[in-house]
Amino acid sequence: KNMPLAQKVKVKKSLFGKVTINIELLNVDYCAKIGDKYYALDEELRVLDSNVSSSKYTPYGAVKVKLPDVREPVLGEKLVFYDTVVETDEEKETLYEVRDESYYAYTVNFLKSLKESGYHSDSNGVILTEKFEITLIYAEKYSINFGDPNDFDIKFRVLYEILAEGSTQYS
After folding, report:
1. Does residue 33 have a pLDDT over 90?
2. How far is CA 98 from CA 31, 36, 84, in A?
3. Cβ-proximal residues to 97 (8 Å cutoff; 6+ apart), any chain
4. Cα–Cα separations (whole angstroms), residue 16 to 12, 20, 21, 22, 79
5. What is the pTM of this model?
6. pLDDT digits (tens, 9 = 90+) for 93-133
7. Are 107 and 114 a contacting pair, CB within 8 Å?
8. Residue 156 backbone phi and psi in degrees, to 5
9. Is residue 3's pLDDT more than 80?
10. φ, ψ for residue 98 (rounded to 5)?
11. Does the pLDDT at position 171 exceed 60?
């Protein structure tokens, strides 16, 4: 309960009373600041853990993510985007335009594509606040705008060719 990132815990006791505890932790792919806390997330935007600092997650490979507004995160549950829930005033009129959950599918699609692309380990941050302006901060020196949420595999291949070509090393 106090260690939500623990996936498996094995406790062994030898004949002489020596206790050995092996802890296998979940992989934290991403982390995001929501409110005053940082939340550990997997590629499906499931909340794995929370902490007051991102330093608990980023040294182990978690990439910082900036997301559209979300509701209060619940441990073990997927994040819920703020405007996908209907809220009404006293006259039963909606307070804002309510979007379907599928509108935010681009966030999960990009995070999965990034994880599969091979660029995840050197990524520093992802900005997913706007659907048609997805940005990746890579290797602490590149800001790559992916534009719309289509054809991520092709865009990652083009990025590979640009970086492999070598002309960016001189600037």
Report:
1. yes
2. 26, 25, 5
3. 83
4. 11, 12, 15, 18, 47
5. 0.82
6. 888 888 999 999 999 999 999 999 999 999 999 999 999 99
7. no
8. -70, -35
9. no
10. -90, 130
11. no
| 73 Cβ neighbours under 8 A, 6+ residues apart | 34, 39, 47, 50, 79
What is the H or E stretch that residue 112 is in?
Answer: helix 105-117
Is the Cβ–Cβ distance between 157 and 119 less than 8 Å?
no
Tokens of 118: 């091979």
- Categorize the per-residue pLDDT at 169 as very low, low, confident or very high, splitting at 50, 70 and 90: low
Pairing of strands 47-51, 37-41: antiparallel
Contacts of 36 (CB under 8 A, 6+ apart): 52
Handedness of CA 91, 97, 103, 105 (dihedral sign): negative
DSSP secondary-structure letter at 41? E
- Cβ burial, residue 123 (10 Å; 0-12/13-18/19+): buried
Beta strand pairing status for 37-41 and 19-25?
Answer: unpaired
Phi, psi of 100 (to 5 degrees): -75, 150
Rg, Å, the chain Cα set: 20
Q: What is the pLDDT of residue 92?
A: 81
